[in-house]
Give the backbone structure.
Amino acid sequence: MKRGKLVILMIGLVVSGLTSVHAQSKKEKIEMLTRRTDSLQRLLSFKNESVIALQVKLARLEGIKEAHNEEIQRLEGKSDSLKELLIARNATIESQAAKIAQLNTDLNGLQAQQKDWASKTEALTAELNSLRPKPVDAGITLKEAKAADTPKEEIKTGNVVSGNKPNPPIKN
């Protein structure tokens, strides 16, 4: 019995030793798990703070996006009005260009007409000059006028026509 008691005592000591080792190992596991939990909580807290910071940045970016969209719409409206103004101005320019072309055509016609009239004026002036007596002939006498084949009515009155002015009567 002594031996049985000793065996039981030994078994008890071994079991209590194992239990204590096992208990110590459980304690270490709990501490290790507690450290891991704390580490995970810190990591989770950091991640949450990062998510919150990203949400704030996202909200700012959305606000900036809305402001830019409003600016883009304002600029598009301004661009559209400028395009309409440009179209209207181009139409005015085309209209003025058509008027200029018409006026140039009219001017060319008038210049041709002026040249025609100038040539007719020159011809009439030459014809008129050929009909006028020469300055030397201005003081001719009645006998000279008859000799120059002056029409009879002018000889009777004694006036020799020179241009548009009648000559004063010639006294013999």
